[in-house]
Design goal:
This protein is an alpha+beta fold. The chain contains six helices and four strands. It has two domains: about 5-55 and about 130-175, ACT domain (Alpha-Beta Plaits), CATH 3.30.70.260; about 60-125, no CATH class. Helices cover about 50% and strands about 15% of the residues. A four-stranded antiparallel beta sheet has the order 2-3-1-4. The longest helix has 27 residues, at about 95-125. Pfam families: ActD.
Length: about 180
């Protein structure tokens, strides 16, 4: 089914919270709460309680990047040193561990940082095509709720928005 986007503008944050609570309780077919975006000109600390916990996956990118960077560095440095096994070492080990640990530590950090940045961009959905549903009033003093759902849910969205005194409702057909 075709997806539609709706943007509703509200004057009061409490009305927007009531809309989100009603959308969550309504159990609308063709709508997922993860497809709801709250837009506000100022910070509202209680937004996390209203929207619910969202999973954060960036720390897994950091862990994998650090481990892969450290392992790659150790094996590259150790294999480069092991290629010189035919040279006389004078009783020293072919792969000396203490100097290798310094380079491994540095690559743990470097791999973790690079993959964390990449993971942040992936988890944030960047680069992404910007929605054409935007109102400059959201940047000034109003709260916007952007929802995405099937065509069958549009009438229910509009009913809930008008019930809670939405100032303006914009609609766009999905791709």
């Amino acid at each position: 089914m075709s997806q539609r986007h709706l943007l509703a503008l509200f004057n009061d944050f409490d009305e927007a919270v009531a809309v989100i609570a009603e959308l969550r309780a309504a159990n609308i077919k063709g709508f997922n709460m993860d497809d709801l975006i709250l837009k506000s000109p100022i910070e509202h600390p209680e937004v996390e309680k209203v929207l619910g916990d969202k999973p954060v996956h960036v720390q897994w990118f950091t862990l994998i990047g650090a481990c892969m960077g450290g392992l790659l560095a150790f094996f590259l440095v150790a294999s480069a040193q092991a290629n010189f096994f035919s040279q006389i070492k004078g009783g020293k080990p072919i792969v000396p561990l203490p100097p290798d640990f310094v380079l491994t530590y540095e690559m743990f950090i470097l791999g973790g940082v690079f993959i964390t940045i990449l993971g942040f961009l992936i988890c944030a959905g960047l680069p992404a095509k910007r929605s054409s549903l935007y109102s400059t009033k959201v940047s000034e003093d109003q709260i916007g709720i952007l929802v995405k759902g099937d065509e069958s849910a549009v009438a229910i969205f509009k009913t809930i928005f008008t019930k809670h005194k939405a100032l303006e409702i914009q609609e766009e057909a999905g791709k």
